[in-house]
Amino acid sequence: MEFIANNLAPIMFAGLICFLLIGFPVAFSLGACGLFFAVIGIEMGVLPEALMQALPLRIYGVMQNETLLAIPFFTLMGLILERSGMAEDLLDTVGQLFGPIRGGVAIAVIVVGAMLAATTGVVAASVISMGLISLPIMLRYGYDRRIASGVIAASGTLAQIIPPSLVLIILADQLGRSVGDLYKGAFLPGFMLVGLYMLLVFIIAFFRPSMVPALPPEARDLKDKNGNSGLPSLLVLTIICVGLSVFAAQNMEAIHTWITGEVVEHVAKDETIVFSMCFGVTLAFVAASINRITGMGLLSTVAEKVTFVLIPPLLLIFLVLGTIFLGIATPTEGGAMGAMGAIILAISRRRLNYKLLQQALVGTTKLSCFVVFILIGATMFSLTFQGVDGPLWVEHLLSDLPGGQLGFLILVNIMVFFLAFFLDFFELSFIIVPLLAPVADKLGVDLVWFGVLLAINMQTSFMHPPFGFALFYLRSVAPDKEYTDKVTRQRIAPVTTTQIYLGSIPFLCIQLLMVGLVIAFPGIVSSGLDEKVTYDLDAIREQMEANMPSAVDFENPFMTEDSASESAAPAEDDPLKAMQDALEAAPAN
């Protein structure tokens, strides 16, 4: 019994692992484990009974957490956009743009996956949408099934790291850091992953072109009425808008000075990026709108169509992330604006009806309840775990590792990688992160950087064979039997589960490479954060001394030449001296 009392924390953690391996639901495993070991701890005198009185207050605190309100807002935004056909329009248009080059459809899937990640934040919606729309096209025109499956699954998981990611919201809450800071820190790593995915496709297209063929001419239907491609007009519009965006970014201080009427000498990097990109995108949309309304014919039909398909979701991204990055709105407010913007987009496309809205609301409610129940269970577990000195046990276990910070980071990432075989990011965030954060903070690891690093690692939980959820989502929509293609009338072989698993491995390696890059080059994350303002106290002191009248003693600023002659007066005539004497005479508590 003494052994159990002295080692209740590791026994409790091992008990939780047993509950999870049995297959018991995570939320109830956490809650049951917390309450069960609380009773044991109280009976053995290890845990004070009064500690459990805090449990109702902590559960009520979960319901009062305004940060978590961003989850249903972003989920609703993503589900409405996905069900309103935005993903289908994006994949069709971008696929036609990149189709003439080898691997073009795969590149289009990655680009659209990044755009969906920045608007939906939901992996299931992205993978299922792209699996239903783009997988038949890639199979129709001879793409290797492993490459097609891997591209779709990996592009869908971008919703885990590209803001407004749900996992970043959860991590910010668990780490006690700002959601906006984690969004800023994850911005560059997320788009570096996009670039690495594209690089892999280009390498395959160069060395094994037969695996990623270009679309045949008869499949390229994005043309003007006269048969021209219309791409030169689109290229000119793109060059003009990009050039003006770059010009605006280089002259951001002057623009802010003109807008505010006050001299602005410095503009934050994230504000510069958001403002300049929004300026270029708005300019393209205005030009296309004027061309369509007036019938001037300055832009081709292709340029108009591409603009009207790509710009609305981009403007929605800037509406949500731009207001968060600029500090205009909190993530919760940004999510509310995003949900409202998605509804407006669906109405403008005449695709919003009662059935669509009902499905989106039901899906949002299910996911939100899932998160809250896990969080309540995690609260029960963490209260008991803290009561039996569990955090102290974890701290001793991890802080004494060889290698200091680097050893801690390597072990933690290996542990999270293998736990991700069995747990998804919600469970990892609520179970593991609260145990790791105090140790990381004590070792001097920046928690914002640490949160982004864990988010990249947790992204692999969707790609792990055999339990990766993205692989399951793709398996549910990929053809499992031979079928006749509607366009070519040819028989298409099914996509096997083994092919889906094998296709995920190269992209899983890229995600692990990104984890290593972030550890080796912390600036990948920290460069996107606001610069910390530091003050030189010695310089401030010197400046104050220089600006003070010569008759004032800096050590005794209340002592002037006039009062110096009165310094010999009795204490009761000097209120400051009387106060000091009174404080010294007061008894110590």
TrEMBL record:
GO terms for CC? plasma membrane
Membrane-topology annotation of the record? Multi-pass membrane protein
Residues that span the membrane, as ranges:
7-28, 67-85, 105-135, 147-171, 186-207, 228-249, 273-294, 306-328, 334-352, 364-385, 405-426, 447-474, 500-525
* Taxonomic superkingdom: Bacteria
One Gene Ontology term of the molecular function aspect: transmembrane transporter activity
Recite the UniProt keywords alphabetically.
Cell inner membrane, Cell membrane, Membrane, Transmembrane, Transmembrane helix, Transport
Q: What is its main location?
A: membrane
What this protein is called in its record is TRAP transporter large permease subunit
Q: What organism is this sequence from?
A: Comamonas denitrificans
